[in-house]
Amino acid sequence: MKAMILREANKLKLEEKETPNPGSKEVVVQLRAAALNRRDLMVVQGRYPGMQLPAIPGSDGAGVVIAVGDEVNNVRNGEEVIINPGLHWGNDRNKKRADFSILGNPTDGTYAQYVKVPAENIYSKPSHLSWEEAAALPLAGLTAYRALVTKGRVKKGETVLIPGVGGGVATYLVQFASALGADVYVTSSKEEKIEEAKLFGATGGVNYTSDDWSEELQKLTGGIDLSIDSIGGEVFKTLVSLGKIGSRIVSFGATRGPVPNLLLPSMTVKEISVIGSTMGSSQDFADMVKFVEKHKIRPILDKTFSLEEATEALWRLEKGENLGKIILSIPQD
Question: TM spans, by residue (predicted)?
């Protein structure tokens, strides 16, 4: 099979590799499309904790099952599927096991024509989605669903803030929160991204390069019930100031690093809950897929590249040029 293989940092190369065979509880999927995540970028740059080389990056993918293990009875050859990239979460929905990992390192991932995964990580592809849309759903969709619904406990009519709209998780957060009847606001450094976000569910937004963006947002919203944050840094302090009494902040990342000089009394007086979230359980994934099917949600796609253009695609992701998910089209021969 053809695969993009990483043998040293920042050097992805299209190579031929033996097609995998399934273990007794595994399946092999012939991929039709894969999608990029920031985790892939960290792996390719050699910055991901515990990574191993050589490796085939990629966590997201959709395709057709072409081989099943002897003990697999819940998946059939020829089934159109998407892959839950979270491996070995365990039976406790509230927390992952110590050996939890994500497809794409150290386990070979989806930047390839075929991928081998545990049968329990296979789910039927929602019929209303194209291959590209289906491939875009798993990691970001799961992360967004758990942060918003399982951890954030969003309610109809609440005001929800999504800082830094543009990436895959943020676009799902807007779509999911809107579908659940929340009033959704976003921030971005680009006015066009705010306008685009309004097309898929946002009520409004502000440009965070403005000196008074938090004051603008306060006037627009009257305060925030639930913020879903992946930025951290000084932005997190602003989320505290915007929060209503009894509000929640769910954090699933911190691209700007730790929060400096956080004033805990501000959180105490407002009784703000801060909740960490990451990926999600198999139940979260199943619930997310059902939710997408029920509301006929279609992932927001940015641009599609060929498999051998993976490095160029990652460069686009690193520069933050995308709105929605970047896709790799996988060749079938």
Answer: none
CATH number (domain holding residue 67): 3.90.180.10
DSSP E strand boundaries for the chain = 2-8, 11-16, 26-35, 60-68, 80-83, 86-87, 101-102, 114-118, 122-124, 159-162, 183-188, 204-207, 224-229, 243-251, 273-276, 301-306, 325-329
Shared-domain flag, residues 267 and 285: no
* Cα dihedral 9/15/16/20 (nearest 10): 30
pTM for this entry:
0.94
Q: How far is CA 78 from CA 1, 28, 31, 60, 63, in A?
A: 19, 11, 12, 19, 9
Q: What's at 101, amino acid-wise?
A: S
Split into its structural domains, the chain has a count of 2
- Summarize pLDDT for 7-34 with one digit per residue, the tens: 999 999 999 999 999 999 999 999 999 9
